[in-house]
Amino acid sequence: MTYDIIIIGSGIAGLMAAIEAKNETNSVAIITKSNIFKSNSSVASGGINAVLDEKDEVEIQKHIDDTMKSSKDLGDKKAISYLCHQAPLIMKKLVEYGVAFDRDENGKILQRSFGGGSSKRTCFVGDSTGSAITQALIKKAKLMGVDFLVNHFVMDITKIEEYISGVVTLKKLDSTVVVYPTKAVVFAGGGYAGIYRGFSTNAQDCTGDLLSVALRAGMSLQDMEFVQFHPTGFAKTSYLVSEAARGEGGYLVNADGERFVNELGTRDVLARAIFEQMRSGKKVYLDMRHISKEILETRVPSLYKNAYNQVGIDLSTELLEIKPVAHYSMGGIASLMASSEVKGLFVCGESAALGVHGANRLGGNSLLEGAVFGELAGKKAKEYAFNKEFLPIDYNVVIKNMDLVQRIFDGDCSKNFNAMRISVGKIMFDKAGIFRNESSLQEAFDYMKYLRLESNTLHCIDKSKHNNVELISILELRNALELSEAIILSAMQRSESRGAHFREDFAFTCKEGNRHVLIKELQKGFFKVHYEEGGLTKWLKKILT
Fold it and tell me: What pTM value is reported for the model?
């Protein structure tokens, strides 16, 4: 089946893109590798940043300044200005689509403080903001006639020269490789923090598959070294303790009962401060005992419920042990205002490096980025596809993927791919996590290189082709290993500390580092990694014109 426009990903970015791309005459589909309700957006809890009055230039400028400051000199001023100026308009659109933001007695949307923000600008729906937004957008997309292709694992794209022509997927139901010819594609498949399995708020299948697809298509990734570690996750389960908990007045205390850090500081500062306490042998806790039970049950209901259900803690009377966990990836596919190196391929959300986060994302900006640039990507895809013809499919790519699937089914395997996946998460957290150095990064790289070779020998024990979970897990592992190498090499290239990237052997920020790191896979296992030359915007403008 053919579609004029294909969106990959069913989070806020993908849904906004699909809604904007759809009109009365074209065909638009969303492809998602599981069900439509599963995405990082749907579990994002804290809120979405926005100045509600589009004419309030003073507060909008504060939002711009806070975002630029958090980016540690790596933010793109044009993209950040666009993000913050679009925020009031996006909020109106979300309300129109049915998102029921919390309001005061006068009907005004409530806003809370968030880390790194100089004003209260984070709008919310309790502590289930992402879920409320995605559900409203799914309903809107369905009403508009967007098709949902669920349980399709994207393996590759096909191109004719530098023009997109199709999307190659694996249909989970029967393990068949299916190609969908299309005129335009939007990548909105999320980030790669799930690679840090066991030490991440992300689901284990958040392995950055589309970034691996981009590498195989000859595209560049940007800023892969910047992985944001959220300062507060459940110590036992890694469940996210939303910044809303600290925005509502929660304290961070160590085992001695001491508050040791400003709870509303930026996430990189808090994560390192907490990890330092842990390295010194002291556990760290979230303390909300001074907040009324009524506030806890109304403002952070999901946290209150899950603290009790998961670890048996009553937040109104007990301390909750927490730890930093991999949460968000600032790096992604190199792009300029949602456009990529491939003609007809647009990127948004956590898949993209759009320049709005730089070295450290400002809390509350991720849902906003997804909505704002998802909308922009959808508009651009619709404009691009208008009056375009379908291009031929490169069936060499399709056949290559069919052969790969068959090889994974053929043969026997005694290796435990699940154990390999767990070890990837541990090594990445220990050696390429909150603290890094040349030695630890080299150790991590050598281990990933070894595992990548080993992954070529993995086969399905279960030979059934009906909903084969092993097949998808093996493909995700291969992608995770490819991206792990890209993360590590990018971290080795950046010989300084900046934002979420902290090198113990280079514990300073240098002017030479005010540039993006780009990485491209020249052939399987061989990368070119370098600092941008002449400015990323200049480089991309040259490609895109």
Answer: 0.94
